[in-house]
Amino acid sequence: MSERSVPKAVPRIVHVGFYCRDVKRSVAWYEDVLGMHVHFSVPNRAYAMGFNGGKEDHDIFLVQAPTTYAEPTPMHFDYETLEATKGRIGFYHVAIDFQSFDAAMEAYGRALARSSELAKGVQHGDGRGIYVRDPDGNLVELFSFNGCIDDADAKRLATPYPGSEGRGGGFAMDVAATYRKWKAEKKSPVAV
Question: Where would I find the H helices in 16-122?
Fold first, then answer.
């Protein structure tokens, strides 16, 4: 066996970095919507943020962009086909696994409260993704694995959406209706 076939260490992504139009506004969004904490910072310039209260390395690194930087070109999607209708090559999105559908819905509610734009919703074969924009237009997927889909969803997943051949299954999710239903079920008393 050659030395090349045995990795000495498994690489991992340490963090994702973003230039921000207004870094303090972006820090507040990541704190309020995603529940992240500042691990360390150079005030008004750069903020390293994470989910675990500073116990490990950070997940997101936000940096104040110089005023000479161009505005981003956000991607836009057709809600039915999920096809990108406008965008650019490069960064697509960062996905955050909220570990439960309820936690992802709560994060979506916080994003709505901060007037975040909904880009799209996708019912993947293994979970649901709600794609919202942070204050700088970056796509953040609020993801949850969900082993519980109804028969109609299972049938739809068996037939890939147009243009998805070779990219895995999934279909457009009506996020507004899903959120309304979730909120109504949360307000209903739990049967004992």
Answer: 23-34, 101-113
Q: Minimum mean pLDDT among 34-43, 88-97, 150-159: which range?
A: 150-159
Going by C-beta distance under 8 Å and a sequence separation of 6 or more, which residues neighbour residue 185?
none
State residue 53 phi and psi, 5-degree precision. Answer: 65, 25
Q: Identify which of 19, 163, 136 has the alpha carbon closest to the alpha carbon of residue 74.
A: 136
Dihedral angle at the C-alpha atoms of 88, 59, 128, 173, nearest 10 degrees? -40
Task: Please state whether the predicted TM-score (pTM) of the whole model is above 0.70.
Answer: yes
Dihedral of the alpha carbons of 127, 107, 41, 21, in degrees to the nearest 10: 100
Could you tell me if 107 and 33 are in contact, meaning their C-beta atoms sit under 8 angstroms apart? yes
In angstroms, the CA 150 to CA 153 distance is 5
**Neighbouring-strand partners of residue 62:** 18, 47
CATH 3.30.720.110 fits 76-187, yes or no: yes
**Where in the chain is CATH 3.30.720.110?**
76-187
The CATH number that domain 16-64 falls under is 3.30.720
pLDDT of residue 134: 95
Residue of 131, 142, 15, 135 lying closest to 75 (CA atoms): 131
Beta bridge partner(s), residue 131: 120, 141
